Structure formats: C-alpha cells, structure tokens
Automatic annotation (TrEMBL):
Catalyzed reaction equations: 6-carboxy-5,6,7,8-tetrahydropterin + H(+) = 7-carboxy-7-carbaguanine + NH4(+)
The protein's name in its UniProt record: 7-carboxy-7-deazaguanine synthase
Cofactors demanded by this protein: S-adenosyl-L-methionine; [4Fe-4S] cluster; Mg(2+)
Binding site for substrate: 20-22, 35, 96
Occurrences of domain Radical SAM core (ranges): 26-245
Pfam families linked to this entry: Radical_SAM
Family to which this protein belongs: Belongs to the radical SAM superfamily. 7-carboxy-7-deazaguanine synthase family.
Classification via InterPro entries: 7-CO-7-deazaguanine_synth-like, Aldolase_TIM, rSAM, rSAM_sf
Residues the record lists as binding Mg(2+): 48
Gene3D superfamilies: Aldolase class I
EC class (word): lyase
CDD domains named in the record: Radical_SAM (cd01335)
Length: 249
C-alpha cells in the first residue's frame, strides 16, 4: 500500500467526515467525505484554497490568503484512510479536493480496500474535469461530478477546458457536469460549451457561486430562470445554508 495526501480540518486531523452532500445530483444524501490536498488549477473564488494555495504560491485568489502546508496537508497510509471511511455510517463515498484525480493510482487502491470491506458503497468523485481518471480507479467509480472552470475562475482555458477531456466526460453516462456561475455572462459560456461538446441537459447542472446564504439566494433568483429556459438542472449549495463556509461539512 502507498499513501494519500489529504486536506485537514485542524492541524494533524484529516478531513474525513460524514455530512449531507450539498451539491449536484446527490444533494441531500447522507455521505462520507474524504478531501484530498493539491490541485492543478487555481480558481480565484475557490472555497477550499487551503488544499493548494500554500505559502509561496502567488496565484491570484480573492482572499489573498496563503496557508502553511504542514498545518493544512496530511499524508496517510491508503489502508488507514480506507479504515476511517469504513468506520463512518453513510454508504455513499464522496472523494473531493483539491483535484482528487491527481492521486488516481493511490485512490484506486484505497477505494478497492473500502469496497472489499463494504461492497455496498456508492463512490462519487468530484473533479475539475481536466485530468483523466486512472484506469484502475475508473472501474470502481459509480459517479463523476465534473465541474469545468469557466473564464471567471481565472484559469487559462488551455489548462481548464481541455477539449479531449470535455468530449470524454460528455460521452460518459456516469459524469454529471456542474458549472459554477456568478454572472449572466457565465451562463452564456455554459451554453457555448454545452453546444460544442453535446452535453445532455439532464446531466448539466448550474450552481450559484457564493460562500454565504444571502449571495446564493440572490444569484439563485436569476440563475434558476436561466436553467429553466435552457433545459438545465439547477443545484443550490445546501451545506453553506446548513453549516456556513466551514471545513468538515
């Protein structure tokens, strides 16, 4: 067995927890979460910047915060991660980040160990859509929650919107798209991407960007209308309303 690099809730405490899934097609379902550290992109509005914006990383972020790596990153044996997941009761595993697919081979071994202990586990992976899944891991995944980053994220399109990856996800029936939207201009960008890659409306969610209930509600008013008009699905951020913008929720 190898190791996985995880985010932390507090220094030395891995971010492995039970909660309700807050977004996308599984919103409201009791789930076991594991949050991995490291990301290949850098979103200006990222609400988990502690997984990548470590001291010395000067990529733009709206809060302009830098996090000490040693306090916000933890390396654990794959078997230990699997044991902690199995010990929690929800049988829906959500692997998030950061960008989980950067650790595909180690994740495959960890998920295999979870499946061996509890074959009933439903496995979801949340990804920014720019990284191909490891073959061994892909065979163990029930659902992908793919969130390609639009121009307002601040990521160059050549890094965030890779045509062959978007085509592959659009053709993958296990993949649900979730676009983070802050302004009506973002809606127009989603429409362009849907047409270019033939993304089925049934698997396309739009979600308001925001880390407080007031912002989410304000943006939901016009975004829900846009979703209805375009034939897309709308998702809120349930965990923000329930717990606020906090770790381990």
């Amino acid at each position: 067995m190898g190791v996985l690099t995880l985010a932390t809730v507090n220094p030395g405490e891995a971010e492995i927890f039970a909660s309700l899934q807050g977004e996308g097609p599984s919103m409201g379902r009791p789930s076991t979460f594991v949050r991995l550290s490291r990301c290949n992109l850098a979103c200006r509005w990222c609400d988990t910047a502690y997984t990548w914006r470590f001291t010395g990383d000067n990529r733009p972020h709206r809060d302009d915060l830098a996090f000490e790596r040693s306090a916000n990153q933890l390396v654990l044996d794959e078997g230990e991660v699997a044991s902690r997941i199995v010990a929690l009761s929800p049988d829906r595993l959500v692997i998030t980040g950061g960008e989980p697919l950067l650790q595909g081979a180690a994740l495959a071994r960890m998920v295999a160990a979870v499946r061996q202990a509890r074959p009933d586990f439903h496995v979801e992976i949340e990804t920014n859509g720019s990284v191909a899944p490891h073959a061994a891991l892909d065979a163990l995944v029930d659902q992908y929650n793919v969130s390609p980053k639009l121009a307002h994220s601040g990521n160059p399109a050549e890094l965030a919107l890779i045509p062959e990856r978007l085509s592959a996800w659009a053709a993958e029936p296990r993949a649900y798209f979730k676009f983070v939207v802050a302004t009506p201009a973002d809606v127009e960008e989603v429409a362009v991407l849907q047409k270019a890659y033939a993304i089925p409306g049934e698997r396309l969610f739009v979600m308001p960007e925001g880390t407080d209930s007031a912002t989410l509600r304000d943006r939901s008013k016009w975004l829900s209308d846009a979703a209805l008009s375009a034939g897309w699905r709308f998702t809120d951020r349930l965990h923000i309303h329930l717990y606020g913008d906090t770790r381990g929720t």
